[in-house]
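Example 3.
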Amino acid sequence: MAGQDRFPAQDAEILSNPLRRTEGEEATAILRERVLNGDLAPGERLHQVPLALSLGVSRTPLREALVNLAQEGLLEYEANRGYTVRRFGMEDIQQAYAVRARLEGFACWLCATQGLPEAAAARLRACLEAGDRILAAGTLTPEGLPPYRAMNVEFHETLLACAENRFVRSFVHQTQNVPMASDRLFVWEDHAIIRRSHDDHHRILRAILAGQGERAEALMREHVTFAWEVLRDLLRR
Amino acid sequence: MAGQDRFPAQDAEILSNPLRRTEGEEATAILRERVLNGDLAPGERLHQVPLALSLGVSRTPLREALVNLAQEGLLEYEANRGYTVRRFGMEDIQQAYAVRARLEGFACWLCATQGLPEAAAARLRACLEAGDRILAAGTLTPEGLPPYRAMNVEFHETLLACAENRFVRSFVHQTQNVPMASDRLFVWEDHAIIRRSHDDHHRILRAILAGQGERAEALMREHVTFAWEVLRDLLRR
DNA sequence: GCCCTCCCTCATGTATCCAATCCTAAGAGG
DNA sequence: CCTCTTAGGATTGGATACATGAGGGAGGGC
């Protein structure tokens, strides 16, 4: 995902020229990854000159990146003292998931209430079928993980897009802009859990298509909440 | 969400040096106001040199401001083509209120569930009493509006702070970062409406103190939803 | 007459330079 | 021995100079 932003489906990114990116945008993407991956230690001060050198750009585009990431909440800024990597604790991740559960639930409610465009319904059905195929073996092989993850992302992103509320969409993305809190990173080796999770997807789409807003919302909220519990138990070890 | 949150009550703003602000921060604040006030026409292209001149700064801090506002969603950016003022429609405001109703409702649920610190409860009670006094006359005089508005802001901000979820707080602020969508701008001349709204506040606090999470959440959601309806009717005229 | 191309101008993106601020540490005084 | 003061270097903030890509108009070809 070299030239791609973290959220490939972001409207602006794909509609406008994805090829011509400024160094500032490039630096933003790279630094964001570094922070989310933990390459930069929490609390670490970011000195501009060495950082710019390591990125092969001058201080100007670097500063643009720092401003961006500070506003995304990944960095902290103090005037005349520079930027530091934000310290994230379990509470941050917990808070992110708590909000995300509500927001994605709301998105499902919106989808159920407004109705899905046929094209979107088809895409979602395709996601479910793809998941079915991957899980058909009875166990999720290591080779099956990347496509499953991609399917998972597309399912959630499609719902967010169909909710037609740019704030919900943006906010959900922001909750994923926290180390460890991205659903792109899940490492559920437990087949039973992933099976159940995929079953949630089936029920969610069914509820939405049936116009059952409250049910779809409750299902999605639980879906995300449970993902948090799994992640929490995993992080505790 | 990080660096600039346009709400003076933010702890970071007042605790850290409020005096020493960088020109970039200054320019961000000024430009943000200009966009929210409509001083800059929607869709208008922002040329950097004249803008910098009008702000009395050079392009460097100006660009910092543009980056900030673009990520706040107030401006749109296209590489090598510059920034334009985002066009906001009724749907944007409606979406903002819809999300805000949910988020502030969630914040109330959190407050009720976690319990309020005594200091916060005292502040909220003081808000209610202040509102009672202002409305005691039986009609809201023009001189009564600013203090009522300040009280209203403090009430909501206090609840958001007590929810102890930085995402909720940040997201609510972001939904207010939309022209016309700030609760600082309400112009309810109708005394009955404002009376009812203040009664909501009373009930919300009572529900929270009684640990009635669902009730507090429902009350706040309705409180915000109704504010939207009033605003919508007002904008239609 | 219409369209295509080339070139010129202007705006943006990037680099560098200068100024202001902060941190450190050494030294003097108590 | 501790503390306060004060330079010095280092780092960030802001201004300006340079490079690159976008847009528009004039001119020529079809």
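Strands of chain A lie at 45-46, 75-78, 82-85. The interface with chain B takes residues 12, 16-17, 20-22, 24-25, 60, 63-64, 67-68, 70-80, 86, 92, 95-96, 98-99, 102-103, 106, 164-168, 170-171, 174-175 of chain A (CB under 8 Å).
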